[in-house]
Amino acid sequence: MKLILRLLLNALAVVILSYVLPGVGVDSMTTAILVAIVLSILNFLVKPILIILTLPITILTLGLFLLIINALIILIAAHFIPGFEVSTIWWALIFSLLLSFLQSILHSILKEDKKK
To answer: Does residue 116 lie in a domain region?
Structure first.
């Protein structure tokens, strides 16, 4: 149940950001749920491989290259999901940063409600 609730919160964050950012588009809530699922799968499977392959440049940039890896993961998801569009890598980078921020806010609200 917790996993489904987290996916729905992530999908809500994707929808909110698609309205805020002009370079990101989502067709429907179903597409947003699919984006949340695909992003979680890509973060679980592909991201560790990319981190290991780019470890020297990540160390050289003091970890800032991880932001580019996050943007690439979003662009990969946009490539595979019809109805989810990200125009450039810069919009993917901004989307990635704001998505992480919004997810942390939504998940912290969820934890506060659970404590009460």
So the answer is: no
| Domains: count for the chain | 1
Separation of alpha carbons 95 and 56, rounded Å = 25
Domain span at residue 40 reads 2-111
Q: Buried b vs exposed e over 71-109: b needs ≥16 C-beta within 10 Å?
A: bbbbbbbbeebeebbbeeeebbbbbbebbeebbeebeee
So what's the pLDDT on residue 114?
A: 61
Q: Could you read off the pLDDT of 47-99 as tens digits, one per residue? A: 999 999 999 999 999 999 999 999 999 999 999 999 999 999 999 999 999 99
CA distance 8 to 32: 9
pTM exceeding 0.90: no
For residue 74, how many C-alpha atoms fall within 13 Å in the half-sphere facing its CB? 29
Distance CA 62, CA 17 (A): 28
